[in-house]
Amino acid sequence: MDSEKFQCVGAVLHKAGDLRIESVSVREPLEDEVQISIQSVGICGSDVHYWTHGSIGPFIVKDPMILGHESSGMITKLGSKVTSFSIGDRVAIEPGIPCRKCTLCKSGKYNLCHEMQFCATPPIHGSLCSYYNHPADFCYKLPSNVSYDEAAMLEPLSVALHALQRAGLKAGNSVLVCGAGPVGLLNMMTAKASGASFVIVTDISEQRLETARKLGADACISVGKLSAVEVSKLVCEELMKHGLSGDGVDATVECSGASESVRSAIAATKPAGCVVLVGMGAPEVQIPVLDASVREVDIRGVFRYANTYPLALRLVASGKIDVKPLITHRFELKDSLDAFEVTRTMKDGAIKVIIDCSNSAKA
């Protein structure tokens, strides 16, 4: 009923370049939903891309859409059939809601559900607002030692966990991570926490490579305008310097989406190794298929994640992965435009920018 709605504040994208902080309507939660007072929201590269371009591939912003999908908050209302939570519970929000009924969902691969409704993917609204409704079964109660900011980081951490699962990472493996943005750094940290013996990170930014070193990368390579062959040679040299095989790494996680980086990922991976593609760049990329074929290098796609949030939460709560150093900037919801600009430009060494919605009352 309209009488049960109220107004709150949200960051609404109307079209490319037109992000407004304005009043948005919030309905009562459905019977299987909880209503959440949003506390922390991380800005993702996809949020910035929608803001700057108005689309990502086939997903086009045609109507005003609330951005944001890396979120956490406190439950303020319960749907009539929700028994697993109480008002006041602090939760992390897994932003993708599948149909739960199709073959893919039932096989555990719900990230590939054709009916997926994912926050801030047109036409579905995101959660960069002061109040938000979400199905209870895709919310996760936070232990007292996990902050709202850390809980928001479970979303990009889940991307890393899924990528390394797709790569078939085993303890003792060597890993190459291409790209030292937030997802690349989380892949490096997760690989180390999962028992990888040697992790190399590449990027074009010396500043980001220095961050990777501080966070535990065993070696860093500035790739600049190097060719795939040149990058592969440097990777193999780093491996041999540390007493490892010069055939290449066991697994490569490509997080930049850059065409030459994809080619470098394939070239630097050893025979029978695996490359997983996390970064999304051009829709079509020329790659050395013959080289990958004759060396039996597997090339696997990665799309979001499935069944990773509980593990991500355990890793953060236990201290096995410390996401706090990645959070470099915080803004209030009213200053979201500034937050997006800092994320876009990577100003002042920005890695992960968090928007604090805790002071945004009902409109």
Q: Would you spell out the secondary-structure blueprint of this structure?
A:
Blueprint lengths: L5 E10 L2 E9 L6 E10 L2 H9 L1 E2 L2 E2 L4 E2 L3 E9 L11 E4 L2 E2 L5 H4 L10 E2 L12 E5 L3 E3 L6 H5 L1 H13 L7 E5 L3 H12 L4 E6 L2 H9 L4 E4 L5 H14 L7 E6 L4 H9 L1 E9 L11 H6 L3 E4 L7 H10 L8 E6 L3 H10 L6 E5 L7
Parallel strand pairs: 13-14, 13-16, 14-15, 16-17, 17-18, 19-20
Antiparallel strand pairs: 1-2, 1-6, 3-7, 3-11, 3-20, 4-5, 7-8, 8-12, 9-10
Helix pairs in contact: 1-11, 4-5, 4-10, 7-8
Pfam families: ADH_N (PF08240), ADH_zinc_N (PF00107)
GO biological process, one term: sorbitol catabolic process
GO molecular function, one term: zinc ion binding
Quick structural overview:
By secondary structure, this protein is an alpha/beta fold.
Q: Could you walk me through the main structural features you see in this protein, from its secondary elements to its overall organization?
A:
- The chain has 11 helices and 20 strands.
- It has 363 residues and is an alpha/beta fold.
- It folds into 2 domains: 2-153 and 323-356, Quinone Oxidoreductase, Chain A, domain 1 (Alpha-Beta Complex), CATH 3.90.180.10; 157-301, NAD(P)-binding Rossmann-like Domain (Rossmann fold).
- Strands 3, 7, 8, 11, 12, 19 and 20 form a 7-stranded mixed beta sheet that branches.
- Helix 1 crosses helix 11 (336-345), helix 4 crosses helix 10 and helix 7 (228-241) crosses helix 8 (259-267).
- The radius of gyration is 21 Å and the shape is globular.
- The model has no long low-confidence stretch (mean pLDDT 96).
